[in-house]
Amino acid sequence: MEDTKNATMGYVYALQAFLTWGILPIFWKLLSNVSAIEILAHRIFWSFVFLIILLLLTRKKNVWNLLRQKKTRKSLIISSLLIGLNWGLFIYAVNAKQIVEASLGYYINPIVNVILGMIILNEKLDKLKYIAVLIASTAVIYLTIDYGKFPWISIVLACSFGLYGLTKKTAGIEAISALAVETLILAPFALGYILYKMWIGNGALFTGSISTSGYLMLTGIVTTLPLYWFAKGAQRIPLSALGFMQYIAPTLMLLIGVLIYNEPFRHEQLIAFGLIWIALALYTTSIVRNTRNKIKSAKP
User: Which of 106, 154, 190, 242 has the highest CB neighbour count under 10 A?
Assistant: First the structure.
């Protein structure tokens, strides 16, 4: 009974995380009158503030210990730069009316994870995953030819988040404490930029509308809460289930971009997305099959 309740809560946590990530473009659109760099600065600073409060409430005291270890500190500096790049580019994409391209990046991300695992961690790929990587690569090449330019937003979003996950995996650090250190590393620069904008009288905080100032301070909550829920969910449910659920977010982004903000979704884009969806179906099938085989082999 207790295991069932624990698993149910895991699905609730994971669903909350992916739904929030999926509808975040709507929130960033509320700040479309603020530059992407200034929004990023506030996102970093207020995330740091909220994470410190969260750590105090959960009584986690290992943050400073993470900074004392040279290897861990190096990993966290790298991961902080990667997540800062990912956050900033996503905000830029939303406010530059590129939500559809951003959603493609998060569809591609699982395939990037597979490639990184193969190259960096020497992980073996089965036949289905090889085919998935080949199909996804074909989709990206097709989009590049169709656009007449490289879909850099999609690729940078996918690669930055993939490398971020790889860094976190190899470091083996608890998610919330690690994110607190990452935001701590970036917070002085973020705060410096916020204060500079206020000093020259060009900042959005407390100089524009009350709602804008409120939204800027809320960036910390909308950033860290989904990550906290994701970490809690990942502890309670199988990885294969988490893999299925991760496609909720980019699907919502795609629908929001096309249906709410009327971004173009041409026939050529539909073909490319179709190839990505086929690749993801093969990728997910491979994970489910491997998980079942492990469960069977573990039985006495």
Answer: 154
